[in-house]
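Notes from the 1:1 (GR / supervisor)

We went over the backlog. Supervisor wanted to see one worked example end to end before approving the batch request, so GR pasted a single chain during the call. The sequence is below; no edits were made to it. Supervisor asked that the structure be written out right there so they could see what the output format looks like.
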Amino acid sequence: MQPLMEMRPFLSVMHAKAHTAKCEVRWGGRNQDGAGNTVGEEVEQVNSFLSRAALVTKYMTKAGRENMLTQQAMEWNKKKTANLHKVLANRYIKISERAKLEDASFSEFRKKNGITEQTAQQWVCDVQQWAVTEPGSTTQQGATEDLRAEIESIIVALLRKKQDLYRQHDSNQTRQRKRRKIRELKNKLRQKIRLYNTIAEDPIDEGLASNLTEDYILPWERSEDGHSFRLKRSVFDQTMLIRRLEEEQSILVKEMSQHITSLRKEIKAVDKLKENIRMGYFGDMSEDAAAGWKSVLMRRSSILESSSQNAVSMYSAIVDNLQIQDTECSTDTDDEYDLSSPESED
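Structure output shown during the call:
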């Protein structure tokens, strides 16, 4: 029960972009300690692979469809097992390179804006504290907080859509639809700003805000030190990204160690079964069946040994002093590969 009590909500990185700023900061996967660089959409990758059979399975019976999807899932697991050492090694290399690039970029960004390490850490705490603050207690304060959240979300959406207008869309027809959506969002933003100015003491400059002027700072984003909340949020996002990349490296090293440990456990289990065959423990099997079973075990042992050697060689080339926990096989092989029949127990 203890792990269940320590569980926290995890909002996938892509879905978090559609939530409010406070929700993204508080529950977004990129901001959760220990999450690594995962995006939280791993199940969707499996579903995407299984969806390839949709054109065929929709004409099948229920049993045939289930059999086809089972074969697809087994093939997915087979490929994942066979290529696990390559995937982990390549991912570790890419994550390490990206971590260095992001760290260098962030250092240059802090130097350009005159931000010290202590200031950056303080801003991270400020953003986290801002995310957990509740709306005002009075009705007017609550309405003001809601309008601020809506204005922020619209501005962020506009900035992202303008950034992706030419980067993600090739055709003029698609861009035209996106421009129409941008115009609609700008009109909505103007309406929210006018409504906010009627109830708030610190009015927003409608022209500068609706035109997304880069140097314009919203009233509630102004701080005593002269830095905007948008700058603090940028520092927060970059800091969280670097932390997640560093965590991902540790997670990958742990997975490499567990992979080798798992292979060695399985090798020990197969060796124990081979020893039972050599000692004449056949159960109810005939000698021919025992000889065939021994051949299967020898082939399996050879495959596992080769996989283990390849994994150790590849991991050792990219990770220094890889710690491998060499534990005894905890699997009860006699129960897993029971060689006796129910009749022999009578």
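Supervisor's comment: Residues 246-339 form one domain.
Batch request approved.
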